[in-house]
Each structure stands twice: as structure tokens, then as C-alpha cells.
Fold this sequence. Notes:
The complex is a heterodimer. By secondary structure, chain A is of the alpha/beta class. Chain A is built from ten helices and eight strands. Chain A has a single domain (20-278), classed as Rossmann fold. Chain A has an eight-stranded mixed beta sheet with strand order 2-1-3-4-6-5-8-7, sandwiched between helices. The relative contact order of chain A is 0.14. In chain B, helix 17 links the parallel strand 20 (502-507) and strand 21. In chain B, helix 7 packs across helix 8 and helix 7 (186-196) packs parallel to helix 12 (321-338). Chain B contains 18 helices and 21 strands. The longest helix of chain B has 21 residues, at 419-439. At the A-B interface, strand 2, helix 3, helix 5 and helix 10 of A face helix 1, strand 7, helix 7, helix 9 and helix 10 of B.
Amino acid sequence: MENVNLATYAKNTWCPGCGNFAILNSIKAVFGALIEEGLPKEKIVIVSGIGCHAKIADYLNVNSFYSLHGRVVPVCEAIKLANPELKVIGFAGDGDTYGEGLEHLIFAAKRNVDINIIIHNNRVYGLTTGQYTPTSPLGFKGRSTPGGTKEQPLNPLELMMASHAGFIARGYSHGIEFLKKILKEALLYKGFSLVDVLQVCVTFFNMYDYYNSMVYELKDHDPGNYDEALKKIKEWDYNSDSRIPLGVFYKKENPVFEYALNNKKTDMDTKIKELLNDYA
Amino acid sequence: MDNFSILIAGKAGDGIDKSSLIIGHIFSRLGYRVYIYRDYPSIIRGGHTFSVIRCTHDKIAAHSDKIDILLALNQDSIDFHKAKLNSKSLIIYDSTSVKSDEGLGLPIGIIIKEAGALELMRNSCIIGAMCKALGIEMDVLEKVFRKDISRETELNLKVAFRGFNEAREFAKVEKLKQKPMGLVAGSDAIGLGLIKGGLKTYLSYPMTPSSGVLHFLAKAAEDFSLKVIHPENEIAVMLMAAGFSYAGDRVAVGTSGGGFCLMTEGLSLSGMAELPIVFVLGQRPGPSTGLPTYTAQTELNFALSAGQGEFARFITAPGDAEEACYWSSMSMNFAWKYQIPAIILCDKTLNEGTYSFDADSLEITNPPETFLWCQKGGYKRYRNTENGISPLGFPSNKNIAVKVNSYEHDEYGITTEDKDITVMMQDKRLRKEKYLLKDLEQYETVKLYGKKDASTALLFWGSNKGPCVEVGTKLGLRVVQPVVFSPFPSKQFKEALKGVKKIICVENNATGQLADFLKRYDINVDQKVLKYDGRPFTVNELEQKI
């Protein structure tokens, strides 16, 4: 992968120790590997939302669309539908896509557009300096909820199961080899994939010690089994102190929503005249 | 008799809409120019719905309050529209369900029962009777029915012939010696214009009065290799449009005021990221949900200022089907040449009005062209050029990375907070507007009708074209129509008003948005004629108000 230069001149402004570095480095390695295996670099497109995660668009020297807060998913869907030869990867935050733009995530899964969504889930708003998100635990004390939140967090993976997502996985920003493996598997999967990455915000919600004591890698798990997948997804509800499984929970090939690449030239004027004849 | 109006009325779900089109086609075939106005409530079944089919020798785009032939399928049809009739008007009615002291009553209810036909086919029967009453040959009726009715054609014809045979001739409508024109709804004309402008993808969440464009394009999708998508909401519509545009698809979205509210964040993104996107903005009476199925010109101010920040945009308001087609195509071309959002302001009157369409208007001379990347050397998505236009490259172009950004960015598209780059890029984006304004000089952005040297000007915009041109011409006024609002061709506009002493401004809104807009250019309107009850001006009404 040394042959492929994926860096830009943009200065990295993430905090030292930020979990985003693990995602950046993992995806660089995955892109490098895919390019070496024959994927042309110009076929890669990344999309990001708004938040700390989104700076990844500036840090990777590939086609990129730095979108709006909550609006990663529809942009990804459109790019893929416009040109099915492109490999489209959306990077989004938990506030971004589980909050502001949740509807798009549900519909993209339901539609099954062949895109990959990677959630930098640090369970806190970083760039706006520390407020709760849809996956913050109950009682989370943030700057907008100094007395602690009074609402349950969402289990986004359970929601993805209900939305007919065909590929559902969880990664963790500590342990980059395993993260690379999950991301590569997601990128090679045809259909909508969601990888929720527990990515630690060292400044506003440092969960390294907690996660290190709770996470484990899925072993002897059959990702083709819906009930098994749901059971594993429900093992941790993003709130209670239980073990946190990592890996690919669910993987099933489904018919993909797509349009064939169409380069044929239609004689528009003749067709329009034909149409107008019908109006007479 | 070469200027007459037919009104057909009944309940929603009675097939009034389809019938009015069939009647329009009958008169089109006889060489008449036709305009159809539709009036219906926001419900699926029941309520009162009617259409006015106006037929004339010369092209028109307005309906009249004076009805010559009333086709009544229920009692309301007579009771609600009596005031529009005169002593010579003819009422044709279903005597099994309608009471009338005058006119031609046919037991249509019984006729369809005897024929084993559906309730809906009462329309066919009354159209048959109308043809006989107006001296139209059965052959014309049959040809139109065979073309327009694909289901149960024979049964429809059977009841139409019975209506024909049981009626009497009251007047003779002559065949005109001019080439028939097809009938096109404004929505279809917009769709055709977009296709002509190279449309590849159309996105829309259904909303009256723009849904017609969605339906037309969805139907035309296969023939024209279009992707027509109805996503989860208008925000998805907007952001998908941004994604399609980035990937190189010519794309348009359709909505009305409420949906456009949801799109404005993305509109601003289109300005910042320089992503060409065309908006079909169907205005309607507001605020809020307003009157969904009625007409208004409420969004000129909104279109001009929607979206945060300052950025260039193209805005046009076509007045009839030909202009809708031409300016939709031009909107697409300007959006792509200047990499800006373009908004087509329309409304129910235009979109759902049906017009005799001059197919020659499809020719566009000198369409604006897009600047594409030459595929040589390094690539900067936002290269700072003299006219502000950066050559377009797309993902999958070899050896380059195309980076677009909603943040302020440098020429490569990488985020910046540098003060000098910020100014440079803001200037670059705004500079495009000046070049666009210059470019517009070669097109007819301000139109003149009527007595072109008259000292009183009748000013209008958009779908008021029909009544204003007709009435203004009749009264000997100088009729002036701005077609483009952003960037505003003030030079051409002032030229059109040269020597004018009095300006009357006609608008379908409560505040006079065009009149207010013109104050920015030191142009003061003397008299505002405003109508905001959700209905368009009829020619008689407008003439009275002026």
C-alpha cells in the first residue's frame, strides 16, 4: 500500500488520541488493498457529514463530497445510482446520522442501495463541545443536559435489522486489525452495509477503559442467521453494563436498488415529436 | 362562432378531467386553439369539480366567465354556474339527475343502464350529445374517442353515439382552416423542457401543484432513459439531487412552497459547492398548507432569498406551455454552464392548465454550454478563473480527485478558514452572476405584447400571461412580462418601459411581490391589481378591474 498515496496536504486537527485516527488509518489500509487488487482509485468516492468525523474528507486524497449535517446517506445513494461503477463510502457521526438524518439511514437500508455507511459513534457531540447524542447512555451529563439525560439510547443496529439492512457490523477504534477486517468485508459486500464503530472521544467522553473491559470479538457466530444476529445485537443496548460484541452480526444478499449504467444516446428530438403526436 | 367556452362539471371522481381533455381534442382536431382550466377541491371523491374548455381561432391562455355550453352531470353544475350563462347559452344535462327549465335534457342515467355501461360513462354520453348540438360530425367524435379511451372503447362509443343520436343540432361549429396543434399541460411542457435540457434524473416528493411533472416524467422515464425517483422526503430529494449533480447527472427536483422550505439548506449547499440543480417550484396559496389545489404567485420573494448565505442563482417564471418548455430547458443549461441552482417558478394555473402547444417552439437557438475539464494536467474542482466558472470534472475521471465541500474551501475543495482564500472564493462564486447577466442579453428575458408604444404599461409575470396579454392587447396597453428574475435584466426591463407614464401590475398574491421587487431598481408601480382567492383571473374579470 506504500505505492498508493492517499494523503492530502490538509493539516489534521483531531485531538491526540482521538478514535477517528483508527478509522482513517483502517480505511486507508483497506483502500490501499482494494486498489492493489485492481479497484481504480478514481472509482472511490467518500462522503462525510458535519462533525469531527467529517474532516476525513479533507484527509483522504480521493473523490469526496463534504456534505451537510445528517445528510451523508442520501448523497451516497445518489452517487451510486448515478454511476454504479463507483465504490461509495459514507462516513457519518452518531449525532449526524442517528439523530439529524435518521430517516435517510432507514430508507437507504430499506431500499438496499449498494453503499457503505461507517458511523463514527463516539456517543457525544464533539465539535459542538459535548452534548448527548441518540446513543449516549441514560443519565449522560452533557452541556445541554447538565442534570443528565432522561431518555434511553437507541440501539441503532436493532433499528437496522428492522429496516432490512443486509450487512450489520460493529467495530471499535481500539484494535485496528479487526476494524480493517470488518471494513474490508463491508466494502466487498454488495448492498447496503452499516458498520457502527465505537470511536472514542478522548476529550468529551473517554470510554477506552470501559470498552476495553467489555468488548469481545464474535466467534462461532452465523451471520446468515437472522435470529442469532438479532440476539447478539440485543446483547448490549448501548446503556446497561453488559458485554459488547464486535464483528459482523448479520450478512445476507438481497436484491439491490440500482439503475444500469446508461450511455446510450437517445434521439431526444424524435422521441419528443413522437410524444407530441400522442397529444393531438 | 370561433370564440366559445364549454363548462363541464360534476363531483370529484366523475371523470370531469378526462372529459375536458377529450372535448379539447375534439376542437383541436377542428383547428381550434384550446385552453383548459381545471378547478377541483383537495379531496379524492365528492365535492364540486369543473373544467372550462375555451376554444378560439388564435392562441389563448386564459379562461372566461362567460359560458356558452354547460354540460351538467349533477344539479350543482347548474346551480353553481348559472351566473356565467347568457340568453344564448346552451345547457346539456342528464335529465335523470338534474332539473332544468331550459336546454337539452337527455336521460343519460337510463341510457347507460340500458347499455350496461358504467356511471363514469355518462361523460361519454354527454360529449356525444354536445357534438350533435354543435354540428360536429360523428366521425370526429369517434376518432378522438378511439385515441383517448383505451379501456372499454366500444362501450364508451356506444353510449356516445346514443347521446349523439338523441340530441338536436343547435349551432354549427365550423372547421377552421389551420393546422391542428396538440394539447399539452404545463407540467408536461416543463418535463419536456427538462428532457430537452439533458435531464437524466428527476427527484420529487409528491406535492401539488408540481406532482404533474413527477407523473409525466415517471411515465416518460423508459422512453427517455430517465431515472425518476420518489424518496422519503424533500430533504432526501434535495441531497440526492446534490449527489447526482456531483456524479455528473443533469438533475431536477420538483416541489411546492412547503417542500421547498425543507430544501433550502440543500439549495444553499448547491450555491456553495457549485452543484448545478434545477428546482421546479410550484407556488400555491399560503402561508403554510394554504389551499393545496388552487393557484397563487406567492414565492417570488422566497425564491429570490431562500437559503443561508449569499450565492448566485437563476430564476425564471414562464407564462405558458411554450415558455415553460423553453425556460425549463434553459434553466438546465444555465445551471450547468454556471454551476448554480436554477429555479423555475410555476403554479397550478400553468402546471395544470392545458394549452394548444406550438411544437416549433421546441427549437432552441444558441443554448448555453457547459465547461468540462479537458482531462489534461492537474485538477482543481474550484479553479479560480476569470469568469468564476471552474471546469467540471466528475468522479471516475482518471487520475484526479474531485472534492466538493459545503465548508468554505480552497481551489482543490479542501476546507479552509483562511481569510484571503475566503474572500477569493466568495468573489469567484459571485462573479459568475455578472457573466450570466451578460450572457442573458442574447435571449428574450423581457417580453412585450399589445401596443408596444402605449404610455400605460400592463405588467405581469408567470401564468398571468394568458389574461394579461389578451386583455392588454384588447385595451391597447403596452403589455410587459419579465421572464427572468435572477439575475434581473434591469437594463432590458427599463428599455421595455421606456416612455411609459403609468404602470399597472397584475399579480396573484396579496402584497404585490413583483411591484415590491421593482422598487430595488427605482421602478414604481402606479396601480396594483391583486387577486389572492386561489383562482386565476378570467379575462372578463381582469378587464373589469383595469
